[in-house]
Amino acid sequence: MDETLAEFFRRxxxxxxxxxxxxxxxxxxxxxxxxxQTVNFRQRKESIxxxxxxxxxxxxxxxxxxxxxxxxxxxxxxxxxxWDVFQMSKAPVSFRDAEENSVWIRIAWGTQYKKPNQYKxxxxxxxxxxxxxxxxxxxxxxxxxxxxxxxxxASKHHQIxxxxxxxxxxxxxxxxxxxxxxxxFETHNCTTSxxxxxxxxxxxxxxxxIHENKVEKERVQRVTQEIxxxxxxxxxxxxxxxxxxxxKSDLNGGILAEREEPLRCLVKFSxxxxxxxxxxxxxxxxxxxxxxxxxxxxPNKGKNYFKIRDK
Amino acid sequence: MPAxxxxxxxxxxxxxxxxxxxxxxxxxxSELKVHLARSLPLPCSVNRPRIDLIVFVVNLHSxxxxxxxxESLCHLDAAFFLGKVAxxxxxxxxxxxxxxxxxxxxxxxxxxxxxxxxxxxEIEDFRAAMAQRLVRLLQICAGHVPGVSALNLLSLMRGSExxxxxxx
Lengths: 311, 168
What we know:
The structure holds two protein chains of two kinds. By secondary structure, chain A is α+β, with helices and mostly antiparallel strands. Chain A has helices at about 5-15, 20-30, 35, 45-60, 65-75, 145-155, 170-175, 190-195, 215-230, 275-280, 295, 300, and strands at about 85-90, 100-105, 120-125, 130-135, 160-165, 210, 240-245, 265-270, 305-310. Chain B has one domain (about 5-165): Rossmann fold. A five-stranded parallel sheet of chain B has the order 2-1-3-4-5, with helices on both faces. The model of chain B has no long low-confidence stretch (mean pLDDT about 90).
């Protein structure tokens, strides 16, 4: 086996955490049971990897096989990539929801003069029978139009549009575009925390503490529930709002009042779980309920990038 | 003796709850019943006992909490300001999270001629110490400490803790 390929195998296998090693190798299904049994998995990781690479050589593994392994690793670690969402249009579409009819595509970019870079591949996840594709952000932005064209042609669509939606959590992106997020689950942490009140603290049933404003509290819980529902929210890490509007002032003739050019400003909300955080704001007393529709429309509109301009 | 009744007023339920729990654990010779309210005025209730002390809790991290307290103050009977009101500012310890300047609450307390206390309620030991202090304050305001009235206490506290802004 050529040295660069062997090295690629070595590095790809080394990435795999030991706890997942057997599962991933079995999913890959390239090395047989017997072959795997010959490996001593109690050695140091480097030695295990070396043995595995030797086995790959025995089986005359090709670049394709390595790419296949890399895709499987990425499927297991999909959260390590940030995913953009593309929507294609004018196609015969019949929705197949809740079915894992997904195709994972791995693309290593090269040019006329350079061999494809195996270490910086782009990934595309395409759900057949739907107009949606998800791509991991590629560092080579110039390849994006090409990728778009290829996807459109391959899936027999006419046009491809990049949606204003981006997140690390592929499954949440899926839930948002396929509108699958509003299904109630029987028991979940999130619903109980809403019932226990702000910040998930147990409500002290001590009778020496009297809660006034019970009515207001109940109103807040009710409004929050109406807007966010009972179900766990899809997971996003941020929402970004770009503002480009002219300055409006109540005072006559402030310094900025005469300004013709619009003011530009960017507001970004970040959180390990943005929508759950927004959901808990009003019950925690940090914001008034109902929240601004600009925040609550995110899953509905399938957007977490907004541009706000004067009408 | 009737129970002593403080009312804790603030937007952040979790903080009020924790403070109330700490106050119940503090040493208090009288029976304690803590009212928690998000804002004033309180909903109409025939059975509410007389309130001995109102503590307005402002979270320096939240402009909303200050705004809510300012609006609530308008609804309070003037008689309370004779020693039965205190302001408690929390969150000063995490300076980078503060969106309200310390001077803003100092000015607010000065305007209403009431003492201002600082305490990071999220830290258990500080909270316990503050709770004990509030309980002592409460007992005086309820008239359970012979020889000291709420008004006495107010003038005593003003001397050391709240120099007027002109003096600063």
